[in-house]
Design a protein that fits this description.
The chain has about 210 residues and is an alpha/beta fold. About 50% of the residues lie in helices and about 15% in strands. The chain folds into 2 domains: about 130 residues, 3-Layer(aba) Sandwich (Rossmann fold); about 60 residues, Winged helix-like DNA-binding domain superfamily/Winged helix DNA-binding domain (Arc Repressor Mutant, subunit A, Orthogonal Bundle). The chain has 10 helices and 6 strands; from the N terminus they run βαβαβαβαβαβααααα. Helix 5 links the parallel strand 5 and strand 6. The longest helix is centred in the C-terminal third of the chain and has 15 residues.
Length: about 210
């Protein structure tokens, strides 16, 4: 069961999401919040496995959700955060990932795509809808740094598929290799790039000009 907290400043959006998500047999909405302070309290009280987070949490300028994402993932290292928002800018997606988000989807996605992302993130994978994935790749490759990561051709293939939000299983199907082999390649990539998160591996490789 995926215990989930909804964080969105619009009550009607939270009500709609709750209604849709609770139809899934493996999702349970355990709390809601409209502000960063409420979110921190609800997460402390309910101890969810996942937070579905909008980035804009008030009518004021700014994206409070970015700071909240960083605070949540720092305070609760095992907590998965999936961004669900209307905002879609290349660097914004990258910043959300650097602040600890495991995935990024826009509110235009349908229910099945949202549930797929929730389940993937809950299992420790990264998840993006096609528009967010493209934005992330553009954002990551906007200012590549010098040098090249010493990755094998197969590791580069796996890394490029990670950049498009594919899970280990999807990568194994795409490359016609065992899922355990994919895990081996992912582990090697993260070791060589000296990172601990898949999204960080994509970011570092892009900065190095490797993808």
């Amino acid at each position: 069961m995926i215990d989930l907290v909804l964080v969105d400043d619009h009550a009607v959006v939270r009500q709609g999401l709750r209604s849709v998500l609770e139809r899934a047999p493996d999702v349970r909405v355990v709390g809601e919040a409209a502000t960063p302070d409420e979110a921190l309290q609800v997460v402390a009280d309910t101890k969810p496995s996942l937070v579905l987070l909008d980035l804009k949490l008030s009518s004021a300028p700014g994206l409070e959700g970015l700071d909240l994402c960083a605070r949540l993932t720092t305070t609760y290292p095992g907590l998965a955060v999936l961004v669900l928002t209307t905002a879609l800018e290349d660097q914004l997606v990258v910043t959300a990932l650097r602040n600890g988000a495991k995935g990024y989807v826009v509110k235009e996605v349908d229910t099945s795509e949202l549930l797929r992302a929730i389940r993937a993130v809950d299992q420790g994978e990264n998840a993006f809808d096609p528009r967010s994935s493209s934005a992330m790749v553009r954002g990551l490759t906007a200012s590549p740094g010098p040098g090249e990561a010493q990755l094998t051709p197969r590791e580069l293939e796996v890394l490029r598929l990670l950049a498009h939000g594919l899970s280990n299983r999807e990568i194994s199907e795409r490359l016609f290799i065992a899922e355990t082999t994919v895990k081996f390649h992912v582990a090697n990539v993260m070791r060589k790039l000296e990172v601990t998160r898949r999204s960080e591996a994509v970011y570092v490789a892009s900065q190095l000009g490797a993808i």
